[in-house]
Amino acid sequence: MSEQPPEPTRDTDAEATPASPRVRVRRHADRAHYDRETVDAILDSALVCHLGVIVDGEPLVLPTGFGRVGDTVYLHGAAANRSLRAALDGACLTVTHLDGLVLARTLLNHSMNYRSVVVRGRGRLVTDARERLIAMRAIVEHAIPGRWDEARAPSDAELAMTAVIAIDLDQVSAKVRSGPPVDPEDDLGLPAWAGEVPLRLTADAPRPDPRLVGAVPEPLSVAGLRRRFASEPPAHD
């Protein structure tokens, strides 16, 4: 669930050209997008991704934060993190926004409106000190813009305990569904309500840590989050 931007514009040849068969959308191919403008917009407006890897011969999928810099997605975690190590041999990274529930006249045609991205590739362990800091800043700023300059920077000891991996956006596809239900013509006269129930992510009022020392004002980053995920009153008939 997230704030819902306008439907991505599909006016480039790139949308019909997957980088390889590995990322070609087969089911509902008309919903596929392969252009980077659409892919980047979906990635940049998501707070969480899911990283799929093989660990000890078994599939493992874990949610995690991330950040994007140009053509690269960065992830970080404890240096001993098994999923990050496994991503070096191959990974599938996914992002999904649930924008609404779609209620049809028949149960089989119920659906969801969504925006999703699938990235496939091998992770690269980031060892360059400068790139590691760029990656960590991108991850923080992705979730909370402006926060990197408001809090203490990571210490050398903390950096030593942290692994950073990069996954290039070479093998990537997006899939988007929007709009009302698609019922067969023969079912349009059924006496069942049909339509869409939009969903979005909202933010409640911040709760200051009771251990704050002195009168610490609400930072700009938090104010920005409140604006970004501002609650909207429900629509009335």
Structure description:
There is one protein chain. The chain has 237 residues and is an alpha+beta fold. The chain has one domain: Pnp Oxidase, Chain A (Roll), CATH 2.30.110. Helices cover 19% and strands 30% of the residues. It is built from 5 helices and 11 strands. It has helices at 36-44, 82-87, 129-143, 156-160, 220-228; strands at 32-33, 49-55, 58-64, 67-69, 72-78, 91-103, 111-121, 124-125, 162-168, 171-177, 195-198. Strands 1, 2, 3, 6, 7, 10 and 11 form a 7-stranded antiparallel beta sheet that branches. It is globular, with a radius of gyration of 21 Å. The two termini are 23 Å apart. Residues 1-15 and 233-237 have low confidence and may be disordered.
Question: What's the SSE blueprint?
Answer:
Blueprint: E1 32-33, H1 36-44, E2 49-55, E3 58-64, E4 67-69, E5 72-78, H2 82-87, E6 91-103, E7 111-121, E8 124-125, H3 129-143, H4 156-160, E9 162-168, E10 171-177, E11 195-198, H5 220-228
Antiparallel strand pairs: 1-10, 2-3, 2-6, 4-5, 5-9, 6-7, 6-11, 7-10, 8-9
Task: Extract low-pLDDT stretches.
Answer: 1-15, 233-237
C-alpha end-to-end distance: 23 Å
Report the mean per-residue pLDDT as an integer. 90
In percent, how much strand structure appears in the residues? 25-35%
Helices, by number, come to 5
User: Any idea what the shape is?
Assistant: globular
Which class do the helix and strand fractions yield? alpha+beta
Number-wise, the strands total 11
Q: Please state the second-level CATH architecture.
A: Roll
Keywords:
alpha+beta, four-stranded antiparallel sheet, 5 helices, Pnp Oxidase, Chain A, disordered N terminus, 237 residues, single chain
